[in-house]
Amino acid sequence: MANDRSSHRWKFFRIGGFDQVAIETAEDLLHLDELDPKLWTVLSCPTTGLEFDGRTLALMDTDGDGQIRVPEVLAAVRWACERVKDPKALFSDGALPLDAIAEGDADGARLKAAASKVLAYLGKPDAALLEVGDFADMTKLFTPGNLNGDGVVPAALAGDEALAKAIGDIVATQGGTPDRSGEPGVTKDSLEAFFKQAEEVLAWRGKAAAPGAGILPLGEATAAAASAYEAVQAKVDDYFTRCRLAAFDPRAGSALNPAAETYGALAAHTLAAGHADVAALPLATVAAGQPLPLAMGVNPAWAGAVAALREQAIGPLLGTRDTLSEEDWGTLSARFTAYRAWMGERPATAVHDLDTARLGQLLADGTRERLAALIEQDLAADTSAATIDALERLVRYQRDLVKLLRNFVTLSDFYGGREKAVFQAGTLYLDQRSCDLVMRVADMGKHATLAPFSGCYLVYCNCVRAGSDPISIVAALTGGEVDDLLIAGRNGLFYDREGRDWRATVVKVVEQPVSIRQAFWSPYRRIGTFVEAQIRKFAASRDKDVEAKATTGLTEKAAAVEGGQAAPAQPFDIAKFAGIFAAIGLAVGAIGTALAAAISGLFSLAWWQLPIALAGILLAISAPSMVLAYMTLRRRSLGPLLDANGWAVNARARINLPFGGSLTHVAELPAGSSRSMSDPFADKKRPWKTLLFLLAVAIAVLVAWRRGMLPF
Asked: What is the pLDDT of residues 638-658, one digit of tens each?
């Protein structure tokens, strides 16, 4: 919160219709938190869509909400001033001298030491300056074999082969965390998780190996035997249950075996051993007390699985046999009960991929302690990730912070004219003019609901360029004529701030007055447009009538000829034509009378009154349009354009006529150019204009003579 009374003497300048504070000295930065936020031009701005380094904005956006607000700006200024010896260094947009870093506290000393190591890593240990580009590729600063303070230890940092192999085992089973160099490595969490899982796996395996446990009746072959058992368990249980039902009621025997119709339905298919309908049949023929055949008489779909059960489980555990009784099946199931319970306790971890001997070695040889010590050593490194990030932050703030202040606390970049503001996306060339007030637009529909309150004539364009994603822009036209721009679909050329050219197509226009002069002629242009539209409409309707009558006449004559009769001649209607000529005469007479009355009224005035009367007539027609234009131009403002893009503008940033004229440039011939007025394809001159002018002069002279206004 700003202090009510600041000890600093601020300097203000007035531009854009409001007072703006000057950010010029180190003292201005040191006392910025004392400046009343009501005097700030902007209260927040988005982190995207600006012609400003996005990484710098991301570092300033501490809460990650996509907006830079006043407290975050103050925090950035405060931190940057603390980290340099003299805040004047922040006004230089070049590289950061190492001597400018304040090293009076522990954090500053670490920054200074890290800066020297960064330059050494980059191969320029004798350099005295750090640039933003030095942090473009972090893998150069964080090589796998160097401690970097991120707490991730890759294999290259192990120092010996045994420890590197252990890191590889941990990464393979726990997944690797990318080191700042990009290599996967071990963290404190993954180290603890690995050894905890290793202990659980060894304990689980030791339970099976205990004497008398009975968990592995076939030793290492138990797993394969249990798998063969589980593959047919449900089907064998089904078979013996059916046999018990047949013993319970003899009538159930025929119902529990497939009916003849079932086989008839199967006969219509091309069958294979694994056919689903075949697999759904019982395992063997059901009968009371019937043992399960293990060779002949087994459902073909299950013959392979039964053979595997016989070979891997029944034979080794019960002895060789061709059938399996229900009692033997119960005995076999009991032999796998302990194994299946033990498998249910199997820890869910990829550490099982390592054999028991390897796990025992890792737990016994001190690998855990050595890796933990190496991780702690990495976290304590001078060139820690946090220190390098802080160093990058300082270099970026030194280059960008003051520039942001001149587009946030003030709008001096926009009004100063020396360089474009951060919200100006480039220059749009359209209809022999260039527009400098161009902004990127993320949502054209949303933007167009608020932006018209700016009072600016706005042109929305879609821009495309080969190899780039399309973008949308809005340009404010603040000078020149705009009548021809009302047509959507016109094409122009947009140059972004990097100098790349884009094809721009007009998709939406928001009409507003551009100048008082344009507003003066606007009623006459509208009248001319209306008259032209009516003439076109009348001509089109008459053309349609003539075409319809001609078509009807030809059709009637053709029908008469086909019928063998001559088409009747239409009698000349003299009354109709007389009426037409009379109407034309009345119209011409009325127009002539009106003109004569108007001219008579004008010439009834004294000669010096004529210009005043004509000016009054013109003013009466144009005044309303000019007044509306004046009121709109008077409130023309930048604020709504920025607010529509997510800014919070805290001032009425006006765009008056002189400043607006500097934002739109109309085509002009270069100084010292010559121009030939000879156009071989110019329109031919017609004498009728001259004749009409002479006729008007003659009528005026005649009226003046008859009224005695002439001396002869």
From this structure: 999 999 999 999 998 998 888
Spatial neighbors of 153 by CB under 8 A, at least 6 apart, are: 167, 179, 185, 186, 187, 371, 374, 375, 378
**Residue 615 burial class via C-beta count within 10 angstroms: exposed 0-12, middle 13-18, buried 19 and up:** exposed
Q: Using an 8 Å Cβ cutoff, are 40 and 12 in contact? A: no
Say what the pTM is: 0.64
Tell me the sheet residues that pair with 463.
471, 504
Q: How far apart are CA 184 and CA 182, in angstroms?
A: 7
Answer for the pair 496, 455: CB distance below 8 angstroms, yes or no. Answer: no
Q: Where are the beta strands (DSSP E) in 616-656?
A: 648-649
Helix%, strand%, coil% for the chain, nearest 5: 55, 10, 35
Going from the C-alpha of 427 to that of each of 100, 424, 633, the distances in angstroms are 38, 8, 22
Spatial CB neighbours of 657, under 8 Å, sequence gap ≥ 6: 515, 633
| Beta strand ranges found along 179-337 (DSSP E) | 184-186, 292-293, 323-324
User: How do 12-15 and 18-21 pair as beta strands?
Assistant: antiparallel
101: helix, strand or coil: strand
Instruction: Please tell me the distance from the alpha carbon of residue 56 to that of residue 71, in angstroms, as a whole number.
Output: 16
Provide the residue ranges of all domains of the chain, joining segments of one domain with +.
1-149+382-420, 219-262+274-335
Tens digits of per-residue pLDDT, 378-391?
887 766 677 888 99
> Cβ(125)–Cβ(356) under 8 Å?
no
Taking alpha carbons only, the member of 224, 231, 234, 236 closest to residue 294 is: 236
> What SS3 state is found at 634?
helix
Q: CB neighbours of 449 closer than 8 A, spacing ≥ 6?
A: 644
